[in-house]
Protein backbone atom coordinates (compact mmCIF):
# COMPACT_ATOMS: atom_id res chain seq x y z
CA UNK A 1 0.00 0.00 0.00
CA UNK A 2 1.25 3.47 -0.83
CA UNK A 3 1.85 5.61 2.26
CA UNK A 4 0.74 9.21 1.87
CA UNK A 5 1.58 12.25 3.91
CA UNK A 6 -1.20 14.72 3.01
CA UNK A 7 -0.23 18.35 2.56
CA UNK A 8 -3.76 19.25 3.67
CA UNK A 9 -4.61 16.63 6.27
CA UNK A 10 -7.56 18.53 7.74
CA UNK A 11 -9.26 19.51 4.49
CA UNK A 12 -12.35 17.68 3.25
CA UNK A 13 -14.79 18.63 0.50
CA UNK A 14 -15.80 22.31 0.41
CA UNK A 15 -18.99 23.37 2.13
CA UNK A 16 -20.25 24.72 -1.22
CA UNK A 17 -20.00 21.30 -2.84
CA UNK A 18 -21.48 19.65 0.21
CA UNK A 19 -24.49 21.95 0.58
CA UNK A 20 -25.26 22.11 -3.15
CA UNK A 21 -25.06 18.29 -3.19
CA UNK A 22 -27.49 18.08 -0.27
CA UNK A 23 -29.80 20.63 -1.93
CA UNK A 24 -29.89 18.50 -5.08
CA UNK A 25 -30.43 15.31 -3.13
CA UNK A 26 -33.42 16.76 -1.27
CA UNK A 27 -34.66 18.90 -4.14
CA UNK A 28 -34.31 21.95 -1.89
CA UNK A 29 -34.21 25.60 -2.95
CA UNK A 30 -30.48 26.19 -3.19
CA UNK A 31 -29.46 29.49 -1.59
CA UNK A 32 -26.17 27.95 -0.45
CA UNK A 33 -23.42 28.07 -3.10
CA UNK A 34 -23.21 31.55 -4.63
CA UNK A 35 -24.45 31.48 -8.21
CA UNK A 36 -27.42 32.96 -10.11
CA UNK A 37 -30.35 30.76 -11.16
CA UNK A 38 -31.08 32.92 -14.19
CA UNK A 39 -29.19 33.28 -17.45
CA UNK A 40 -26.62 35.92 -18.23
CA UNK A 41 -27.12 38.42 -21.06
CA UNK A 42 -27.76 36.42 -24.30
CA UNK A 43 -25.64 39.01 -26.13
CA UNK A 44 -22.59 37.88 -24.15
CA UNK A 45 -23.17 34.23 -25.11
CA UNK A 46 -23.59 35.31 -28.75
CA UNK A 47 -20.28 37.19 -28.65
CA UNK A 48 -18.47 34.14 -27.25
CA UNK A 49 -20.08 31.94 -29.91
CA UNK A 50 -19.02 34.45 -32.57
CA UNK A 51 -15.45 34.29 -31.26
CA UNK A 52 -15.52 30.50 -31.62
CA UNK A 53 -16.91 30.76 -35.15
CA UNK A 54 -14.22 33.29 -36.03
CA UNK A 55 -11.53 30.83 -35.00
CA UNK A 56 -10.41 31.92 -31.52
CA UNK A 57 -10.05 28.31 -30.53
CA UNK A 58 -6.33 27.93 -29.91
CA UNK A 59 -4.23 29.03 -26.95
CA UNK A 60 -4.81 32.58 -25.84
CA UNK A 61 -1.72 34.65 -25.09
CA UNK A 62 -0.26 33.64 -21.71
CA UNK A 63 -1.30 36.91 -20.04
CA UNK A 64 -4.75 36.85 -21.64
CA UNK A 65 -6.19 38.34 -24.82
CA UNK A 66 -4.83 41.85 -25.30
CA UNK A 67 -8.31 43.15 -26.14
CA UNK A 68 -9.56 41.93 -22.80
CA UNK A 69 -6.61 43.37 -20.89
CA UNK A 70 -7.21 46.72 -22.61
CA UNK A 71 -10.91 46.56 -21.65
CA UNK A 72 -9.94 45.81 -18.03
CA UNK A 73 -7.41 48.62 -18.02
CA UNK A 74 -10.04 51.05 -19.33
CA UNK A 75 -12.42 49.96 -16.61
CA UNK A 76 -9.90 50.80 -13.88
CA UNK A 77 -9.33 54.23 -15.40
CA UNK A 78 -12.99 55.05 -15.74
CA UNK A 79 -14.14 53.67 -12.37
CA UNK A 80 -11.19 54.41 -10.10
CA UNK A 81 -8.98 56.77 -12.09
CA UNK A 82 -6.23 54.20 -11.62
CA UNK A 83 -3.93 52.93 -14.36
CA UNK A 84 -2.83 49.33 -14.84
CA UNK A 85 -0.90 48.83 -18.05
CA UNK A 86 -2.40 46.06 -20.21
CA UNK A 87 1.07 44.80 -21.24
CA UNK A 88 2.51 43.99 -17.89
CA UNK A 89 0.11 44.78 -15.06
CA UNK A 90 -3.00 42.72 -15.88
CA UNK A 91 -3.30 38.94 -16.27
CA UNK A 92 -6.43 36.97 -17.17
CA UNK A 93 -6.97 33.90 -15.00
CA UNK A 94 -9.22 30.88 -14.59
CA UNK A 95 -11.55 32.69 -12.22
CA UNK A 96 -10.47 34.61 -9.16
CA UNK A 97 -9.67 31.30 -7.46
CA UNK A 98 -6.69 30.65 -9.73
CA UNK A 99 -5.53 34.25 -9.41
CA UNK A 100 -5.63 33.97 -5.61
CA UNK A 101 -3.85 30.61 -5.61
CA UNK A 102 -1.16 31.84 -7.97
CA UNK A 103 -0.54 35.07 -6.03
CA UNK A 104 -0.09 33.05 -2.86
CA UNK A 105 2.14 30.40 -4.43
CA UNK A 106 4.25 33.07 -6.13
CA UNK A 107 5.16 34.86 -2.92
CA UNK A 108 4.55 32.67 0.13
CA UNK A 109 7.53 30.57 1.14
CA UNK A 110 7.80 27.94 3.84
CA UNK A 111 7.29 29.51 7.28
CA UNK A 112 5.95 32.82 5.95
CA UNK A 113 2.94 34.21 7.77
CA UNK A 114 -0.19 35.43 6.01
CA UNK A 115 -2.84 37.42 7.87
CA UNK A 116 -6.42 36.51 7.04
CA UNK A 117 -9.63 37.95 8.44
CA UNK A 118 -12.17 35.38 9.58
CA UNK A 119 -14.81 34.49 8.56
CA UNK A 120 -12.61 33.97 5.48
CA UNK A 121 -13.55 32.76 2.02
CA UNK A 122 -12.60 29.11 1.91
CA UNK A 123 -9.78 29.08 -0.66
CA UNK A 124 -7.32 31.35 1.19
CA UNK A 125 -6.07 29.16 4.01
CA UNK A 126 -5.52 25.91 2.08
CA UNK A 127 -3.60 27.83 -0.59
CA UNK A 128 -1.37 29.33 2.10
CA UNK A 129 -0.79 25.97 3.79
CA UNK A 130 -0.17 23.91 0.69
CA UNK A 131 2.64 26.36 -0.07
CA UNK A 132 4.17 25.92 3.39
CA UNK A 133 2.88 29.21 4.78
CA UNK A 134 1.19 29.83 8.10
CA UNK A 135 -2.25 31.44 8.17
CA UNK A 136 -2.53 33.96 11.01
CA UNK A 137 -6.24 34.49 11.70
CA UNK A 138 -7.94 37.63 12.91
CA UNK A 139 -11.41 36.62 13.99
CA UNK A 140 -14.13 39.23 13.45
CA UNK A 141 -17.37 39.13 15.40
CA UNK A 142 -20.96 38.98 14.21
CA UNK A 143 -23.02 40.97 13.52
CA UNK A 144 -20.83 43.99 12.61
CA UNK A 145 -17.60 42.14 11.71
CA UNK A 146 -15.66 45.33 12.37
CA UNK A 147 -11.88 45.28 12.52
CA UNK A 148 -9.83 46.00 15.63
CA UNK A 149 -6.72 47.52 14.08
CA UNK A 150 -4.73 47.26 17.33
CA UNK A 151 -5.27 43.50 17.18
CA UNK A 152 -4.15 43.46 13.55
CA UNK A 153 -1.00 45.39 14.49
CA UNK A 154 -0.29 42.88 17.25
CA UNK A 155 -0.40 40.00 14.75
CA UNK A 156 2.24 41.45 12.44
CA UNK A 157 5.75 40.04 12.69
CA UNK A 158 8.99 40.01 10.74
CA UNK A 159 7.66 36.84 9.09
CA UNK A 160 4.45 38.49 7.77
CA UNK A 161 4.67 38.11 4.00
CA UNK A 162 1.11 38.91 2.99
CA UNK A 163 -2.26 40.21 4.18
CA UNK A 164 -5.40 38.99 2.42
CA UNK A 165 -8.41 41.29 2.44
CA UNK A 166 -11.86 40.94 0.86
CA UNK A 167 -14.30 43.79 0.36
CA UNK A 168 -17.27 43.58 -0.20
CA UNK A 169 -16.94 40.59 2.07
CA UNK A 170 -18.05 37.05 1.48
CA UNK A 171 -19.69 35.67 3.64
CA UNK A 172 -20.73 38.58 5.91
CA UNK A 173 -21.87 41.13 3.31
CA UNK A 174 -19.93 43.89 5.10
CA UNK A 175 -17.56 46.33 3.39
CA UNK A 176 -14.32 48.06 4.31
CA UNK A 177 -14.50 51.75 5.05
CA UNK A 178 -11.98 54.42 4.03
CA UNK A 179 -10.70 54.30 7.63
CA UNK A 180 -10.04 50.56 7.34
CA UNK A 181 -8.08 51.05 4.14
CA UNK A 182 -6.10 53.92 5.66
CA UNK A 183 -5.31 51.78 8.71
CA UNK A 184 -4.02 49.02 6.44
CA UNK A 185 -1.96 51.58 4.54
CA UNK A 186 -0.40 52.86 7.78
CA UNK A 187 0.34 49.39 9.12
CA UNK A 188 2.06 48.21 5.97
CA UNK A 189 3.99 51.46 5.41
CA UNK A 190 7.73 50.79 5.13
CA UNK A 191 7.29 47.00 5.12
CA UNK A 192 7.67 44.38 2.38
CA UNK A 193 4.19 43.01 3.00
CA UNK A 194 2.16 42.17 -0.09
CA UNK A 195 -1.58 42.83 0.04
CA UNK A 196 -3.91 40.46 -1.79
CA UNK A 197 -7.18 42.34 -2.18
CA UNK A 198 -9.98 40.05 -3.26
CA UNK A 199 -12.48 42.43 -4.88
CA UNK A 200 -14.70 39.97 -6.76
CA UNK A 201 -17.85 41.78 -5.55
CA UNK A 202 -16.61 45.30 -6.39
CA UNK A 203 -19.66 45.99 -8.56
CA UNK A 204 -22.21 44.69 -6.06
CA UNK A 205 -22.51 47.34 -3.37
CA UNK A 206 -25.68 48.85 -1.94
CA UNK A 207 -27.30 51.97 -0.50
CA UNK A 208 -24.99 54.30 -2.47
CA UNK A 209 -21.96 53.12 -0.50
CA UNK A 210 -18.60 53.30 -2.27
CA UNK A 211 -16.28 50.39 -2.98
CA UNK A 212 -12.88 51.11 -1.48
CA UNK A 213 -10.55 49.47 -3.97
CA UNK A 214 -6.91 49.39 -2.92
CA UNK A 215 -6.08 50.85 -6.33
CA UNK A 216 -7.45 54.23 -5.16
CA UNK A 217 -4.66 54.47 -2.56
CA UNK A 218 -1.30 54.81 -4.34
CA UNK A 219 0.89 53.57 -1.50
CA UNK A 220 -1.29 50.48 -1.01
CA UNK A 221 -1.62 49.94 -4.74
CA UNK A 222 2.16 49.68 -5.00
CA UNK A 223 2.17 46.55 -2.81
CA UNK A 224 -1.17 45.01 -3.86
CA UNK A 225 -2.76 42.50 -6.15
CA UNK A 226 -6.44 42.94 -6.93
CA UNK A 227 -8.31 39.77 -7.87
CA UNK A 228 -11.59 39.86 -9.77
CA UNK A 229 -14.13 37.50 -11.31
CA UNK A 230 -16.28 37.88 -14.43
CA UNK A 231 -18.43 35.08 -13.04
CA UNK A 232 -19.76 37.50 -10.42
CA UNK A 233 -20.07 40.45 -12.72
CA UNK A 234 -21.68 38.84 -15.75
CA UNK A 235 -23.73 36.11 -14.00
CA UNK A 236 -21.84 33.14 -15.40
CA UNK A 237 -19.83 31.57 -12.59
CA UNK A 238 -19.31 28.41 -14.65
CA UNK A 239 -17.12 30.15 -17.23
CA UNK A 240 -14.36 30.60 -14.65
CA UNK A 241 -12.78 33.69 -16.16
CA UNK A 242 -11.25 36.26 -13.85
CA UNK A 243 -8.16 38.41 -13.69
CA UNK A 244 -5.70 40.11 -11.44
CA UNK A 245 -3.89 43.43 -11.54
CA UNK A 246 -0.73 44.59 -9.83
CA UNK A 247 2.21 46.90 -10.47
CA UNK A 248 4.70 45.52 -12.99
CA UNK A 249 7.32 44.43 -10.46
CA UNK A 250 4.76 42.17 -8.74
CA UNK A 251 3.02 40.99 -11.91
CA UNK A 252 6.32 39.90 -13.47
CA UNK A 253 6.77 37.41 -10.62
CA UNK A 254 3.12 36.32 -10.82
CA UNK A 255 3.43 35.46 -14.48
CA UNK A 256 6.49 33.28 -13.86
CA UNK A 257 4.18 30.97 -11.90
CA UNK A 258 0.99 31.56 -13.91
CA UNK A 259 2.61 30.37 -17.13
CA UNK A 260 3.29 26.96 -15.57
CA UNK A 261 0.22 26.83 -13.39
CA UNK A 262 -2.37 27.26 -16.17
CA UNK A 263 -0.51 29.04 -19.01
CA UNK A 264 -3.67 30.60 -20.43
CA UNK A 265 -7.44 30.35 -20.11
CA UNK A 266 -10.47 29.81 -22.36
CA UNK A 267 -9.84 31.96 -25.41
CA UNK A 268 -13.31 32.52 -26.95
CA UNK A 269 -14.73 33.67 -23.60
CA UNK A 270 -12.01 36.29 -23.37
CA UNK A 271 -12.73 37.64 -26.86
CA UNK A 272 -16.47 37.70 -26.18
CA UNK A 273 -16.11 39.41 -22.81
CA UNK A 274 -13.73 42.00 -24.26
CA UNK A 275 -16.25 42.94 -26.95
CA UNK A 276 -19.05 43.01 -24.39
CA UNK A 277 -17.05 45.33 -22.15
CA UNK A 278 -16.61 47.82 -24.97
CA UNK A 279 -20.07 49.00 -23.95
CA UNK A 280 -19.06 51.13 -20.99
CA UNK A 281 -22.44 50.79 -19.30
CA UNK A 282 -21.91 47.07 -18.60
CA UNK A 283 -21.51 47.59 -14.86
CA UNK A 284 -23.94 50.43 -14.34
CA UNK A 285 -27.00 48.56 -13.20
CA UNK A 286 -25.43 45.72 -11.29
CA UNK A 287 -25.72 47.20 -7.80
CA UNK A 288 -29.33 48.29 -8.31
CA UNK A 289 -30.17 44.91 -9.89
CA UNK A 290 -28.92 43.09 -6.79
CA UNK A 291 -30.19 45.71 -4.35
CA UNK A 292 -33.72 45.06 -5.61
CA UNK A 293 -33.21 41.36 -4.90
CA UNK A 294 -31.76 42.03 -1.44
CA UNK A 295 -34.61 44.41 -0.58
CA UNK A 296 -37.26 42.01 -1.83
CA UNK A 297 -35.78 39.10 0.10
CA UNK A 298 -35.44 41.10 3.33
CA UNK A 299 -38.89 42.67 3.09
CA UNK A 300 -40.40 39.20 2.64
CA UNK A 301 -38.68 37.80 5.76
CA UNK A 302 -38.98 40.94 7.92
CA UNK A 303 -41.38 39.21 10.33
CA UNK A 304 -39.58 35.87 10.41
CA UNK A 305 -37.70 34.52 13.43
CA UNK A 306 -34.36 35.41 11.84
CA UNK A 307 -32.49 38.62 12.76
CA UNK A 308 -30.36 40.50 10.27
CA UNK A 309 -28.46 43.63 9.35
CA UNK A 310 -28.97 44.27 5.61
CA UNK A 311 -26.00 43.21 3.53
CA UNK A 312 -23.92 46.18 2.30
CA UNK A 313 -22.44 44.32 -0.66
CA UNK A 314 -22.04 40.89 -2.38
CA UNK A 315 -25.09 38.79 -3.21
CA UNK A 316 -25.21 37.18 0.20
CA UNK A 317 -27.29 37.90 3.28
CA UNK A 318 -26.43 36.47 6.69
CA UNK A 319 -29.33 35.62 9.00
CA UNK A 320 -28.98 35.11 12.76
CA UNK A 321 -31.08 32.17 13.97
CA UNK A 322 -30.25 32.35 17.68
CA UNK A 323 -33.90 33.14 18.56
CA UNK A 324 -35.05 30.01 16.73
CA UNK A 325 -32.86 27.16 17.98
CA UNK A 326 -29.74 26.29 19.99
CA UNK A 327 -28.62 23.82 17.33
CA UNK A 328 -25.15 24.20 15.82
CA UNK A 329 -25.18 26.09 12.54
CA UNK A 330 -23.98 23.13 10.46
CA UNK A 331 -26.66 20.84 11.89
CA UNK A 332 -29.31 23.51 11.47
CA UNK A 333 -28.31 24.25 7.84
CA UNK A 334 -28.43 20.55 7.00
CA UNK A 335 -31.75 20.04 8.77
CA UNK A 336 -33.29 23.02 6.95
CA UNK A 337 -32.17 21.47 3.67
CA UNK A 338 -33.51 18.00 4.45
CA UNK A 339 -36.70 18.89 6.31
CA UNK A 340 -37.71 22.34 5.08
CA UNK A 341 -36.32 22.29 1.55
CA UNK A 342 -34.00 25.29 1.74
CA UNK A 343 -30.19 25.18 1.61
CA UNK A 344 -27.81 27.78 3.06
CA UNK A 345 -24.19 27.97 4.21
CA UNK A 346 -23.28 27.79 7.92
CA UNK A 347 -20.76 30.51 8.76
CA UNK A 348 -18.80 28.50 11.32
CA UNK A 349 -16.91 26.76 8.51
CA UNK A 350 -15.23 30.10 7.70
CA UNK A 351 -14.43 30.96 11.34
CA UNK A 352 -11.37 30.23 13.44
CA UNK A 353 -11.77 26.92 15.27
CA UNK A 354 -15.27 26.52 13.83
CA UNK A 355 -16.65 29.27 16.09
CA UNK A 356 -20.43 29.22 15.84
CA UNK A 357 -22.17 32.63 15.99
CA UNK A 358 -25.50 31.03 14.95
CA UNK A 359 -25.62 32.59 11.51
CA UNK A 360 -26.37 31.19 8.08
CA UNK A 361 -25.53 32.73 4.70
CA UNK A 362 -28.20 32.90 1.99
CA UNK A 363 -27.48 33.76 -1.66
CA UNK A 364 -30.09 36.13 -3.13
CA UNK A 365 -28.80 36.01 -6.73
CA UNK A 366 -32.05 34.25 -7.61
CA UNK A 367 -35.23 34.93 -9.55
CA UNK A 368 -38.05 36.74 -7.77
CA UNK A 369 -40.07 33.54 -7.84
CA UNK A 370 -37.32 31.62 -6.03
CA UNK A 371 -36.89 34.38 -3.44
CA UNK A 372 -40.63 34.40 -2.74
CA UNK A 373 -40.68 30.61 -2.26
CA UNK A 374 -37.57 30.76 -0.08
CA UNK A 375 -39.11 33.48 2.08
CA UNK A 376 -42.29 31.44 2.58
CA UNK A 377 -40.17 28.63 3.99
CA UNK A 378 -38.06 30.92 6.19
CA UNK A 379 -41.21 32.55 7.57
CA UNK A 380 -42.52 29.13 8.58
CA UNK A 381 -39.48 28.25 10.68
N1 LIG B 1 -13.31 35.21 -3.76
C1 LIG B 1 -14.54 35.31 -3.23
C2 LIG B 1 -14.73 36.17 -2.03
C3 LIG B 1 -15.59 34.61 -3.80
O1 LIG B 1 -16.80 34.69 -3.25
C4 LIG B 1 -15.36 33.81 -4.93
C5 LIG B 1 -16.43 33.00 -5.58
N2 LIG B 1 -17.66 33.18 -5.19
C6 LIG B 1 -14.08 33.74 -5.45
C7 LIG B 1 -13.08 34.45 -4.84
C8 LIG B 1 -13.76 32.88 -6.62
O2 LIG B 1 -14.19 33.41 -7.82
P1 LIG B 1 -14.19 32.54 -9.15
O3 LIG B 1 -15.48 31.80 -9.17
O4 LIG B 1 -14.06 33.54 -10.24
O5 LIG B 1 -13.02 31.62 -9.07
N1 LIG C 1 -17.83 31.64 -4.28
C1 LIG C 1 -18.98 30.82 -4.18
C2 LIG C 1 -19.66 31.08 -2.84
O1 LIG C 1 -19.16 31.77 -2.00
C3 LIG C 1 -18.64 29.36 -4.25
C4 LIG C 1 -17.63 28.95 -5.22
C5 LIG C 1 -17.29 27.51 -5.03
O2 LIG C 1 -18.17 26.66 -4.95
N2 LIG C 1 -16.04 27.23 -4.90
O3 LIG C 1 -20.71 30.54 -2.64
Main sheet summary: 7 strands, mixed
Question: What CATH architecture of the largest domain would you give?
Answer: 3-Layer(aba) Sandwich
Q: State mean pLDDT (0 to 100 scale).
A: 96
CATH superfamily of the largest domain: Type I PLP-dependent aspartate aminotransferase-like (Major domain)
Shape summary: globular
How many discrete structural domains? 2
Low-pLDDT segments: none
Total strands: the figure is 12
Q: How much helix, percentage-wise, in residues? A: 25-40%
Beta strand %? 5-15%
The H/E string reads: HEHHEHEHEHEHEHEHEHHHEHEEEH
Structural class: alpha/beta
The count of helical stretches stands at 14
Oligomer: single chain
The Rg value, from CA coordinates, equals 21 Å
CATH fold group of the largest domain: Aspartate Aminotransferase, domain 2
Ligands (ions, cofactors included): 4'-deoxy-4'-aminopyridoxal-5'-phosphate, glutamine
Could you tell me how far the N terminus lies from the C terminus, measured between alpha carbons in angstroms?
50 Å
CATH class of the largest domain: Alpha Beta
Amino acid sequence: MIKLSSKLPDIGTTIFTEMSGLANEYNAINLSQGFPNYTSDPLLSKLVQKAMNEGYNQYAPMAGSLDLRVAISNKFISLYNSTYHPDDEITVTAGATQAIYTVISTFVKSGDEVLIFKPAYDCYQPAIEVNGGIAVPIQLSAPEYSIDWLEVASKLSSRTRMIIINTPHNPSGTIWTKEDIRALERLTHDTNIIVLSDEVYEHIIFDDLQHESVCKYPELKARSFITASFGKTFHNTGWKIGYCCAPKVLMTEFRKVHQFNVFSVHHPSQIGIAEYMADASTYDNLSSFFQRKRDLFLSLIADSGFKFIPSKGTYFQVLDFSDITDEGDIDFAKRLTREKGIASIPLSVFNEGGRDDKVLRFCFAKTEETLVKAAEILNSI
